[in-house]
Every structure is written in structure tokens, then in C-alpha cells.
């Protein structure tokens, strides 16, 4: 039995940063009250909100790589819109997207 192309290449799609509306960030500190301080790929530290749909379903910890959408009216703040898993981080590494974030951290 041979597998169809749909079964062999069944990859989960995950959101990628586009550098205009979303940025790759690393969680530096969890502040409580659904807030986190994150270090972003543009070199800024932002205070971000963890939306209600992630509060109980997806636990976040210090050092996680997340996708952040900065607010238009207050750019030093933003919303965490996605947390990357270890498999997704490997795919981001292959695409070279984590390189700039690692360069900024040291």
C-alpha cells in the first residue's frame, strides 16, 4: 500500500513573522495578570498581553519563542498571538528566522 501525497506530507501550518505586523519574541519574564515581558527581534522589550484563549489551553514559560503583534497606538505593548513548539522551532531554524533573534541576545 502506497501512501498518497496528502498522507506523506501532512505538515501542520503555523504562522510566520512578517516584520510589519508580527515579530518573533522570547519571553523574558511572566508578570502575572496575563502579562509577560518579551524581547523582540527588532531589539525592543515589550509588555505583552496573553489573550484569554491561551490562558488555560497553552501554558507559557520563560524562554518560550512566541509571535507578537505590536499595538498600533502603543508600540511598546502587544498581544501574544502564538507560541511555537519544539518541532516548529526546528523548522524556523532551518528557514533562518531564529538567527536574527539569537544574534540580538548575544
From TrEMBL:
Family annotation (SMART domains): eIF1a
Keyword field contains Signal: no
Record CDD domains: S1_IF1A (cd05793)
Sorted UniProt keywords: Initiation factor, Protein biosynthesis
InterPro entries per UniProt: NA-bd_OB-fold, RNA-binding_domain_S1_IF1, TIF_eIF-1A, TIF_eIF-1A_CS
Gene Ontology molecular-function annotations: RNA binding; translation initiation factor activity
Domain (S1-like): residue spans on this chain: 12-85
Family membership noted in the UniProt record: Belongs to the eIF-1A family.
UniProt xrefs under NCBIfam families: eIF-1A (TIGR00523), PRK04012.1-1 (NF003082), PRK04012.1-3 (NF003084), PRK04012.1-5 (NF003085)
Its job: Seems to be required for maximal rate of protein biosynthesis. Enhances ribosome dissociation into subunits and stabilizes the binding of the initiator Met-tRNA(I) to 40 S ribosomal subunits.
Name this protein carries in UniProt: Translation initiation factor 1A
